[in-house]
Amino acid sequence: MAKVYIGELFPGGKPLRFLNRELKIPPYEGKKPYRAIFDEMDFSFITVVSKPEGADFILIPYTYPTLRNNKTYISHFVELAQRHNKKILAFALVDSDEQFYLPHTLFFRYAGYRYRGAAENEIITPTQIYASDILANDLFYLRNKKEIPVVSFCGWAELNSLRQRLKYLSKTIPLDVKKYIFRSRYAEVHKQGIYWRKRAIAALQNSRLIKTSFLIRNFYSANKNTVQGDPMVLRKEYIGNIRNSDFVLIVRGDANMAVRFYETLALGRIPVLIDTEWMLPSEGEIDYKKFVVFVPYTDIKNTDKYIRKFWDGMSDEEFKKKQTLARDTFMKYLKFDSFLKYVFENKLK
Hints:
Layout: E1 2-5, E2 46-48, E3 57-63, H1 71-84, E4 87-91, E5 105-109, E6 122-124, E7 150-156, H2 162-180, H3 193-204, E8 211-217, H4 231-243, E9 247-250, H5 259-266, E10 270-275, E11 293-296, H6 303-312, H7 316-334, H8 336-346
Helix pairs in contact: 5-7, 7-8
């Protein structure tokens, strides 16, 4: 049992959702079922205590980047950590490449870059799967190995307006300048996800080594401001696209990670990860190469060859074992509550 001290809450604020039960926040009953996912998880290994001296950790109970400019609030946690010789835990689970620092603080964050090295004050954390539908047992089934593998992708991979194109260019051109003018070796890995999606799709769609199942959209369906159509129908298409394939194309998003990676594992499918210097959770404990195809971003044009090599190297029985391993690894190590429990019990002692 991990004991945390969280201090006083802001009136009307939205604390970290895994604290819902401890804070007696009632289960979600609205029209967006994905918001109820935390009510279905087990965070019983965390308890909130009333005094800092009785805690194992000082926990900032809100997403750190949303309030870090509140110097008075943040400095209070630093002062408590110093006075009681405790470590601060902060969750910076946002789509950002920014590196965070606060004295005595360990940050949980979604993404990092191998070339920067593992920061001592960071724990790479899986992104939450926001829909309980994707964790349902009846959605997971084993596919038989056929002669040619099916590779899927469903999502935003086209720019549909001048505004989108200009915004895209405003982020891409400076990175090209860094790469070609200033010879910055890793500038390219910071390019937006849509850049890598377009390149990977172009590399795969005419290949004779694989079959593609692409549902290309010119909008981002996970944002209420950009979605076009019924979100429930779009969600069903998205999940079906993953389930009815052998491999799923995975590229980075705004941060160097993708929710799709974890959804793919939860459904027992094999991710094809365009590796833009990704750092993955629990890399020391999980042998990802057993059930993930890694494609170096510098060799993206040969993505189909990496897939086919992986495919040809296993029997039907081995393919089914890898599907099961992908699902089991997610449930045991990468489901958000499972991950936090493992970290608290094994990494934060």
